[in-house]
What we know:
Helix content: 25-40%
Bound molecules: NADPH dihydro-nicotinamide-adenine-dinucleotide phosphate, oxaloacetate ion
Radius of gyration: 23 Å
Mean pLDDT: 83
Order of helices and strands: EHHEHEHEHEHEHEHEEEEEHHHEEEH
Shape: globular
Largest sheet: 7 strands, parallel
Strand content: 5-15%
Structural class: alpha/beta
Strand order of the largest sheet: 1-4-3-2-5-6-7
Amino acid sequence: MAFMAPSSSSRPLQFHEHASARRAAPALLRRPRSRWRRNQLVCSLEATNRQAVQEERPAAVNGVAGRTDCYGVFCTTYDLRADEETKAWKKVVSVAVSGAAGMISNHLLFKLASGQVFGPDQPIALKLLGSSQRSFQKLEGVAMELEDSLYPLLREVSIGIDPYEVFQDVEWALLIGAKPQGPGMERADLLNINGQIFAQQGKALNAVASRNVKVLVVGNPCNTNALICLKNAPEIPSKNFHALTRLDENRAKCQLALKASVFYDKISNMTIWGNHSTTQVPDFVNARIDGKPARQVIRDTKWLHEEFTKTVQKRGGELIQKRGRSSAPSTAVSIVDAIRSLVNPTPEGDWFSSGVYTNGNPYGIAEDIVFSMPCRSKGDGDYELVTDVTIDDFLWERIKKSEAELLAEKRCVGHLIGEGEEELCEVTEDTMLPGEQ
Ligand SMILES: NC(=O)C1=CN([C@@H]2O[C@H](COP(=O)(O)OP(=O)(O)OC[C@H]3O[C@@H](n4cnc5c(N)ncnc54)[C@H](OP(=O)(O)O)[C@@H]3O)[C@@H](O)[C@H]2O)C=CC1
Ligand SMILES: O=C([O-])CC(=O)C(=O)O
């Protein structure tokens, strides 16, 4: 049954606390909740709304149809007299966000709800995933802030800690939640702990998400987490999985703009190759400044080879040293950019970077890993790899190093992707997040 989008002044929002979240410390893997119950809730809202329209008065029903699982304004419906206006609106897009009580989400959720990401005529349902009973209260706080923001496009907010419930039918999954690398924690431990999260979430997406769900992995180490996720979701096209390297692209653009004394919007064709780590390769060979090859504008080859590359690779770490925590607002902005690049056509001649599955890549990069490469999109959520790029010896040597690093990470998580044992893990010293130094 379709959900009728109401007008901006009358929002029958739903706020579901997934029932499982109220029970004490539930097992994370649980049978998916039946769709019937959700449909029943939607139906009851629609029935109430129709009645309100007929009687030409605000319905303002609290605890719709005896529901006990809604919260504040999300339980309340108002009249739908401006129903006509909403006929032009699109079908609600359903977006899951994990780590929804974390710092990045703190910025991102409000951009999503405001229409900045999917557009001003695109209603949205947000499904917020936390990791434990403890974080559930924080998610309630997040939902309260969303509620107080009165976003006309925000149609539904659900919170829960079971990915099999939260991911039900989602069309986008923004996987941000991950454990930070604690003091004394080995890289292999981080890969294992976070890898387990992404294996479980991959399985859940496979079981209950839309068959064409687009997945953006942000939680680190994001390339390998994305690989784990896609390997655990065999029924979803591998091409639909991305690891976020857009923050690195934005950082690289900023550095070129500073050096060339131009505004950022003059920088185009910026590729980040490889891993979201200190082996990533920001590509000044193909980048353009005001339409010209970057090397024609910036003649300082030593700067390009040494300083530019190192600055971008280590930008995250420098920021952590100064701020005392990893980038959150700029990461949220880069997530917005990454999604917008997939739902809007790429400007003619330009491209964007994303960590994507390497099978069938035209560059000779090892298959079966997630590697940042240049992409173009028609705006349909899909992308194609760009073929007209030059890879010189400088780039290739570094691309191979990042590739070797990702292959080593992959060996560490063999047990999570059905390919071997954990003991094979031998990560190199180079394997560091941008935030580690
Ligand atoms: N790719 C990139 O460019 C960047 C990636 N990152 C990475 O993004 C991740 C998040 O960063 P940030 O928001 O600052 O971190 P925070 O520590 O602020 O938030 C992380 C959130 O994840 C939650 N979480 C942990 N495990 C799970 C799980 N299994 N399912 C759902 N939620 C979970 C935590 O909640 P709880 O209280 O429940 O544990 C917490 O709210 C980190 O891995 C970071 O390294 C950061 C910057 C850039
Ligand atoms: O290491 C981190 O969590 C931060 C990070 O990825 C970045 O700033 O690029």
